[in-house]
């Protein structure tokens, strides 16, 4: 697509910026005719007035011009008179003389610029009735009444200290409440002063990358794996090496081979893993592998980053001890988030730190943001303390179990042999491998599905080296059983319609 | 003091940790007698039960032991049996074999570990009736009713998108509201898509340091100046060079000399300044200096970071155009915070970015935290939109003006020639140079003042190279005129009591 909406500001502003960028980048040449407003609105699934407003701004600024009766065109001067487009194209780099020099970090993060923003997908896509996006908050389940009560209480009871800078590890009451909750629910035992409250997994991963990874150091990560970890490690300048995953989770023997390839012992500084429900494939790391992994980390002097992103939702089998509990927490940094069990806009998560890392992480956090907003922290502490949080977790687990059962039954009924479902014994998503769809044909299937109200998402972005199969990550946390049933039924009809 | 409370968790836990750290660090030797609970409680100004509880935990874990009738002692084995204390003292470094290797960044942030935490001062000190701490929120002024209404509205009106991941530049409604506010109040004109909402100045400075500063690059900063900027630049590995400040603000000629010393043109990547009210000395950067500074930045290809931390509060003189407005915003990153005009626990601030830096900063923010919590952003947008915010600013300005007048009159009456007051034409603090107090005697004055209920703060921490004079930073935003009057009167009596 020549035009990309970036999800920032109003839709018409996005159209304005998208077209302007297309001109700057040369995707729309000077003199080229731009699509009619009606056609573009249809393609983008936005109102026509949105496109008209965007075009008007572009006309006002001289990027576009109208020719009577002929339509709207890129101005003859627009593409060449701007500094960005004036870069010598033969160099293959875009030179913007106005941009101050960036650090190596600044250049590295810019490399992600081709990647579409999640928020763009969230804010610009029309709502689909059967949207299997993973990570959409399960708003129907949320304990909104209890949450509003806790927020209200936190506001009314606020002393002067509640308005001031807070404890940099995070609100003490929240850390006490989380430490007790983690001990009860996940067997993770830690003193509250080893808990660092962060604004979500991403801040936790970024702090870990900054404190632990030198540019050039090696970090291992599951393949396929969590993109947020890969991005944070890369931004720190680390060499990120993928370790394959099989039915038992991360393959520790392959990790040894990767470490040897990376220069042998002593070179691997960190290893990122999702042992309780491998993200996204869903395998549970076996106990033997857990032991081997800790042994690997000990020999390499590497830190294990254990992301227990959906540890609350386990439906089958006996829960295994976390790596943190197995290890005693000296070699393992345990990472949790409230984004799945409550909602992403809360922006709260936590790190359980090895004793020796508390001080460096605390100091890094003081540099990074000086601490988090107080209101949500105090309200969440209250939500946990009054019991509403764990009631919510229990209820959510029952609802997610029902959604999962519905999904699996519907898949068996409507998809049959056309798919292979994996990773269903925990979490809020499954992976469906498509037997009869070529990877190259997946994009079209996703578009066709969207036209039928079904939101589908390829597994390929989770891979560094995509596999030769087409696969979907099906999130079901935000859908009613009825929507799941209908969505899967429609997907089955769609799949049968293709040879 | 051998024992430091770190402000984390309950007071008894802090006593526990403080004593344990003193043992580990060798400040309390094995076999040494620890202070009686009553004496330590008095020294720390905490309840005796707090110290007893801390000691009990230390006794339970074997760090301390009691000898019948003789008191409490550090256990014979405690100081040597722990890994931290087992490090060869001759090396002068504390070796903890359990700690995984840190990155260079991790080691750099650890260097700040000797510095006491602000939060420790906030949470552990008994409340003083005449506390002149700068930065304490003016809770008496806060529009708490309007704020609670806006929070409540944001909660009730939340759609599913408000619970999901938000726009990474910050909530669009907030950016629109802030852009309009900045244009109206500060003459800073920017499109909302050049505004990046951050969690406060600190996150803004950290993002700037990461994106702009290579390890080894030079960053200039006012001397004396804002420690948060110095810390962020140092953590990025930059060489931080102080530029002296005089009555016209930052000395641009001295900046040239510093740049030449740093290796000449092209080496200076960033310059941090507080032109509207130099922090902490309070000078207003003259127009001639503003022009010279922008010229300097152009010649060096350096980014100017303009921190307008208390730009809302100006009491005398015509406001000068911001550097951002003078420059057009291509060379200037404008930084603002809501911590002073509302309160620090809100954790909201903003960057106005040069066009060419929007994308790198946006990508850096996605790596750093993926975005901020939604609730406060939506509520603040509403507070601005409904007019409550600017009513609050106007009211606050009038109240702060009254506080300033009270302070200046009280100082003239009670302190007379004993002090020289500077920087009083804007902001929420003044600097009082003490004519008759030696720098070495200031600590005792501060302690004596605390015993009389007066909270005083030295200016020395703002300096890289402290001056030969004793000076105080007197914040007055959180005090009533009566408290200011009494506090200054008592300070006068205290100063006259010393020869």
* Biggest sheet, spatial arrangement of strands of chain A: 4-11-10-9-8-5-6-7
Helix content of chain A: 40-55%
Report the total helices of chain A: 18
State the separation between the terminal residues of chain A, measured CA to CA.
27 Å
Major interchain interface with per-chain residue totals: A-B, 101 and 101 residues
Main sheet overview of chain A:
8 strands, mixed
Structural class label of chain A: alpha/beta
Q: Radius of gyration of chain A, rounded?
A: 25 Å
Oligomer status: homodimer
Beta percentage of chain A is 5-15%
Shape of chain A: globular
Low-pLDDT sequence parts of chain A: 79-97
Number of strands of chain A: 15
Structure description:
- Chain A has 499 residues and is of the alpha/beta class.
- Helix content of chain A is 42%, strand content 14%.
- Chain A has an eight-stranded mixed sheet, with helices on both faces. In chain A, strands 12-13-15 form a three-stranded antiparallel sheet, with helices on one face.
- In chain A, α1 (11-24) packs across α3.
- At the A-B interface, α4, α5, α6, α7 and α8 of A face α5, α6, α7, α8 and α9 of B.
Briefly summarize what is shown:
The structure is a homodimer of 499-residue chains. Chain A has 499 residues and is an alpha/beta fold.
How are the SSEs ordered, and which strands pair?
2 copies of one chain form a homodimer.
Chain A: H1 11-24, H2 37-44, H3 48-60, E1 64-67, E2 71-74, H4 104-110, H5 118-124, E3 130-131, H6 144-156, H7 160-163, H8 172-186, E4 195-198, H9 201-212, E5 218-223, H10 227-235, E6 239-246, E7 249-250, H11 252-261, E8 268-273, H12 287-300, E9 303-307, H13 323-327, E10 332-337, E11 349-352, H14 358-368, H15 374-385, H16 388-415, E12 419-422, E13 429-434, H17 442-451, E14 454-455, E15 470-475, H18 481-496
Parallel strand pairs in A: 3-14, 5-6, 5-8, 8-9, 9-10
Antiparallel strand pairs in A: 1-2, 4-11, 6-7, 10-11, 12-13, 13-15
């Amino acid at each position: 697509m020549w035009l990309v909406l970036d999800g920032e500001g109003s839709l018409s502003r996005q159209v304005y910026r998208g077209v302007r960028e297309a001109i700057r980048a040369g995707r729309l040449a000077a003199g080229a005719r731009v699509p009619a407003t009606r056609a573009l609105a249809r393609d983008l699934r936005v109102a026509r007035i949105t496109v008209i407003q965007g075009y008007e701004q572009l006309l006002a600024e001289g990027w576009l011009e109208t020719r009577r009766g002929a339509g709207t065109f890129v101005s003859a001067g627009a593409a060449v008179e701007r500094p960005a487009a004036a870069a010598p194209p033969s160099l293959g780099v875009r030179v913007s003389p106005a941009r101050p020099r960036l650090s190596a970090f600044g250049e590295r993060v810019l490399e992600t610029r081709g990647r579409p923003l999640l928020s763009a997908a969230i804010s610009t896509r029309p709502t689909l009735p059967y949207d299997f996006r993973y990570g959409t908050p399960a708003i129907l389940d949320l304990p909104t009444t209890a949450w509003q009560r806790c927020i209200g209480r936190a506001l009314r009871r606020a002393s002067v200290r509640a308005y001031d800078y807070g404890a940099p590890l995070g609100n003490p009451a929240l850390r006490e409440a989380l430490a007790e909750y983690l001990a009860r629910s996940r067997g993770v035992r830690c003193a509250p002063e080893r808990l660092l409250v962060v604004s979500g997994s991403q801040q936790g991963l970024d702090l870990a990358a900054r404190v632990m990874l030198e540019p050039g150091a090696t970090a291992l990560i599951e393949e396929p794996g969590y993109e947020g970890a890969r991005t944070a490690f890369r931004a720190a300048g680390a060499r990120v090496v993928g370790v394959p995953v099989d039915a038992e989770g991360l393959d520790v023997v392959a990790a040894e081979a990767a470490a040897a390839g990376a220069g042998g012992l002593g070179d691997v500084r960190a290893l990122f893993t999702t042992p309780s429900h491998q993200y996204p494939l869903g395998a549970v790391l076996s106990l033997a592998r857990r032991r081997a992994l800790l042994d690997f980390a000990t020999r390499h002097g590497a830190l294990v980053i254990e992301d227990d992103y959906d540890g609350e939702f386990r439906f089958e089998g006996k829960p295994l001890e976390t790596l943190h509990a197995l290890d005693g927490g000296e070699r393992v940094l345990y990472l949790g988030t409230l984004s799945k069990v409550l909602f992403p806009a809360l922006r709260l998560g936590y790190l359980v730190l090895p004793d020796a890392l508390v001080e460096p992480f605390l100091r890094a956090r003081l540099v990074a943001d000086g601490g988090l907003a107080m209101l949500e922290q105090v309200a969440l502490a209250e939500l946990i303390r009054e019991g509403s949080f764990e009631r919510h977790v229990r209820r959510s687990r029952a609802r997610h179990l029902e959604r999962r059962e519905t999904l699996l039954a519907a898949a068996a009924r409507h998809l049959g042999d056309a798919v292979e479902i994996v990773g269903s014994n925990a979490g809020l998503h499954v992976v469906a491998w498509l037997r009869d769809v070529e990877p190259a044909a997946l994009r079209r299937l996703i578009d066709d599905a969207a036209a039928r109200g079904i939101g589908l998402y390829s597994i390929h972005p989770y891979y560094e080296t995509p596999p030769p199969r087409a696969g979907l990550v099906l999130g079901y946390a935000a859908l009613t059983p009825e929507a799941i049933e209908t969505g899967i039924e429609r997907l089955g009809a769609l799949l049968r319609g293709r040879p």
